[in-house]
Amino acid sequence: MVTELAQGQLFEILEEDKHMPESEIKKIAIQLVSALFYLHSNHIIHRDIKPQNVLIGSNGVIKVCDFGFARAIDSKTMITSIKGTPLYMAPELLQEYPYNQSADLWSLGVILYELFVGQPPFYTNNFTTLMNKIIKENVKYSDSMSRDFRDFLKGLLIKVSTLII
User: Fold this and answer.
1) pLDDT in tens, 96-135
2) How many alpha carbons fall within 13 Å on the CB side of residue 78?
3) Fewest CB atoms within 10 Å of the CB: 2, 47, 54, 118?
4) From start to end of the chain, where are the E strands?
C-alpha cells in the first residue's frame, strides 16, 4: 500500500508550517505537474487533488494517492458530475458545467497557492459562501510572490468563463 511507504502528507506540512518558500513549493510543483501529466496523458482525471492526497516519501518524493473519484476519459469527454473536496474544486465543477482534466490543474493551483499563503485562495467554512467565492471572486495574489510564480498560478487558476470550450 502506498500510504505505508509515505513519510507524511502535504496536509501535515501545511498544518505545521502554514506556508513555504517558493523554492520548496517549486520542488513540489514539479513533481505534481509530472504526476498529473502522467495521469492525463493516460486519459485519467483524478478529481480529488488536495493536500491530504499528496504523500511525501523519503527524500521529498511526492506521490498522489486516493483514486476513489478518478475516472478514465478520452480527449473529447467532458464530465459534469460533482466529485472532490469543495475547497479544491474548480468553478466549472461547482456549477456542474462540463469539465475535463483542467479541473485537476485548478486543484493543483489551489494547493500551490495554499502552500505559499497558508490557506486556499477562497476560504470559508460555509459551503454556499465558498461556492460563491470560487465562482464569482477573483484570486487575490500576494505582492510577495515572484512574478513567475504568480503567472504560473494564474495559468492554473483559470475560471471556465474565461475559457472557450
Assistant:
1) 888 889 999 999 999 999 999 999 999 999 999 999 999 9
2) 9
3) 2
4) 8-9, 44-45, 54-56, 62-64, 71-72
CB 128 within 8 A of CB 121: no
Mean pLDDT, residues 18-46 = 93
User: CATH number, domain at 132?
Assistant: 1.10.510.10
Residue 57 lies in a domain: yes
Phi-psi region of 47 (alpha: psi -120 to 50; beta: other; left: phi over 0): left
Number of domains in the chain: 1
Does some domain include residue 103? yes
How far apart CA 113 and CA 13 sit, in angstroms, is 14
Hey, which residues are catalytic here? 48
Within 13 Å of residue 39, how many CA atoms lie on the same side as its CB? 25
